[in-house]
């Protein structure tokens, strides 16, 4: 595997990791190694697909850890209310 391909894989991985500064650095390195915009866009799209799939799987899995699966939904609502209140207090 050449350096360009390894860096394109790293671009997708930085998206999965939600690291903006990493993405900026690796995308610049990938371009310097010969990657074109279309390849970077595809690597980013694949990273987003992987990230979104793993989030969806976790959202389905996490409630199975509790006797009352709805307890997690209630905790999510409590957190959302807290965040909304916090945002409005600024």
Strand content: under 5%
Number of E strands:
0
- CATH topology description of the domain at 3-64: AhpD-like
Helix content: over 70%
Unreliable stretches, pLDDT < 50, 5 or more residues? Answer: none
Largest sheet: none
Q: Going by CATH, what is the homologous superfamily of the domain at 3-64?
A: AhpD-like
- Could you say which structural class the secondary elements and strand pairing correspond to? mainly alpha
- Molecular shape: elongated
| CATH level 1 class label of the domain at 3-64 | Mainly Alpha
Individual helix count: 4
Q: What's the architecture of the domain at 3-64, going by CATH?
A: Up-down Bundle
Radius of gyration: 19 Å
Cα separation of the termini: 50 Å
Please provide a written account of the structure.
This protein is mostly helical and 90 residues long. The protein has a domain at 3-64: AhpD-like, CATH 1.20.1290. Helices cover 79% and strands 0% of the residues. It contains four helices and no strands. Helix 1 runs antiparallel to helix 2 (20-32) and helix 1 (3-16) packs parallel to helix 3 (37-61). It starts with a helix and ends with a helix.
